[in-house]
């Protein structure tokens, strides 16, 4: 197996910089759209054979060094008692607004409530044998709570902030329950065969560094500490976290994911040599001509300055209108320019 990705997660020397892409299984690929045309998004997530198929597609097409399970961060929230739909974005018809709503939430049993996720992982481990490692993932407690309280995406996330500031008892009760759910879910993925875990905190950056440390960090730390991760590295990605990376580091992830709004070299200096990093090309660069893509890849590799513990990635998910050939060229550039 190509273990370059896992070795980099642990900060060990590698022959070249490994690369994968957030949302690498997605709408920019015609192969994915062909599968997606036959079912709804939720049906795709809940059909192990199809989820495995679209997970493998970009591994074969792009030549990346890791596969990431095709699913959605909100998948485990639905069996907590919130009905989920995509229209096209996620919508909960019964959002959490009170302590009574929190009390109604249950902690799912992944084996019985989410068997399709675990079966997809088992299929993938067989199909990927001898190829590349498989990344499992989940949403960070705060990002999941954002959707659960708002009921959908938001421009200002005023609902979760109102709860956080004005009803801290409700907020804490919700975060405790979501953290426990997350822990059970991610540990089940590890047992099923996930070889690394990425925790997505898409909305952690909407808070000030002080509020992040007070209202978010304790729960993410509890989650990471509760994972059975002796041989399973954890990647912690907080979008918009450039101003608070030293605080994010306290959560204890083995790898800190970086968005594109910070210089990678500066981030490494802030985090220290012992913390591996992942990132951080602006997803929009993949619309550019090849010479620009190559220039930007080289810039990020130069910012890393040959330090161990770097996984190349975008600073957020690949955009659905990116030409697939551009993504493949980027992967080729990373491998070629970083080869030692």
Describe what you observe in this structure:
The chain has 340 residues and is an alpha/beta fold. The protein has a single domain (4-338), classed as Alpha-Beta Barrel (TIM Barrel), CATH 3.20.20.210. 47% of the residues lie in helices and 10% in strands. It contains 16 helices and 9 strands. It has helices spanning 4-9, 30-36, 41-45, 48-62, 99-104, 110-113, 115-127, 141-150, 158-166, 168-192, 209-215, 217-225, 245-249, 264-271, 290-304, 324-338; strands spanning 67-68, 84-86, 90-92, 134-139, 196-201, 234-238, 255-257, 276-278, 310-311. Strands 1-4-5-6-7-8-9 form a 7-stranded parallel sheet. The chain has a two-stranded antiparallel sheet with strand order 2-3. α15 (290-304) packs across α16. The chain is globular. The model has no long low-confidence stretch (mean pLDDT 97).
User: Which class of secondary structure composition applies to the elements?
Assistant: alpha/beta
Briefly note the CATH topology name: TIM Barrel
What's the rounded overall pLDDT mean? 97
Q: Which spans have pLDDT < 50 for at least 5 consecutive residues?
A: none
Straight-line distance between termini = 19 Å
Indicate the percent of residues in helices. Answer: 40-55%
CATH classification class: Alpha Beta
Per DSSP, what share of the residues sits in E-state strands of 2 or more residues? Answer: 5-15%
Query: How are strands sequenced across the largest beta sheet?
Result: 1-4-5-6-7-8-9
User: Could you give the count of β-strands?
Assistant: 9
The tally of structural domains comes to: 1
Radius of gyration: 19 Å
How many individual helices?
Answer: 16
């Amino acid at each position: 197996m190509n273990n370059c990705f896992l070795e980099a997660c642990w900060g060990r020397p590698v022959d070249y910089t490994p690369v994968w892409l957030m949302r690498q299984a997605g709408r920019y690929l015609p192969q994915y759209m062909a599968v997606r045309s036959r079912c709804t998004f939720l049906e795709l997530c809940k059909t192990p054979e199809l989820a495995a198929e679209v997970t493998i597609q970009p591994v074969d097409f792009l030549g990346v060094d890791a596969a990431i399970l095709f699913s959605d961060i909100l998948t485990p929230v639905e069996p907590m008692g919130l009905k989920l739909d995509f229209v096209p974005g996620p919508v909960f018809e019964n959002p959490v607004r009170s302590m009574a709503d929190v009390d109604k939430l249950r902690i799912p049993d992944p084996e019985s409530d989410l068997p399709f996720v675990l079966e997809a992982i088992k299929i993938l481990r067989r199909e990927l044998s001898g190829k590349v490692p498989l990344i499992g993932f989940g949403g960070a407690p705060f990002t999941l709570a954002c959707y659960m309280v708002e009921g959908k995406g938001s421009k200002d996330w005023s609902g979760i902030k109102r709860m956080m500031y004005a009803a801290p008892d409700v907020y804490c009760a919700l975060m405790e329950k979501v953290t426990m759910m997350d822990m059970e879910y991610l540990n089940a993925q590890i047992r099923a065969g996930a070889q690394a875990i990425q925790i997505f905190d898409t909305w952690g950056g909407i808070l000030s560094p002080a509020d992040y440390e007070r209202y978010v960090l304790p729960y993410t730390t509890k989650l990471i500490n509760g994972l059975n991760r002796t041989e399973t590295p954890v990647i912690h990605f907080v979008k918009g976290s450039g101003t608070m990376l030293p605080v994010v580091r306290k959560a204890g992830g083995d790898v800190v994911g970086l968005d594109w709004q910070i210089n990678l070299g500066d981030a490494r200096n802030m985090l220290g040599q012992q913390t591996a990093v992942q990132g951080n090309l602006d997803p929009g660069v993949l619309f550019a001509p090849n010479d620009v893509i190559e220039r930007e890849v080289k810039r990020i590799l130069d910012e890393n300055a040959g330090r161990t513990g770097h996984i190349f990635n975008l600073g957020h998910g690949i955009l659905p209108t990116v030409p697939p050939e551009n993504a493949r060229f980027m992967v080729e550039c990373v491998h070629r320019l970083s080869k030692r």
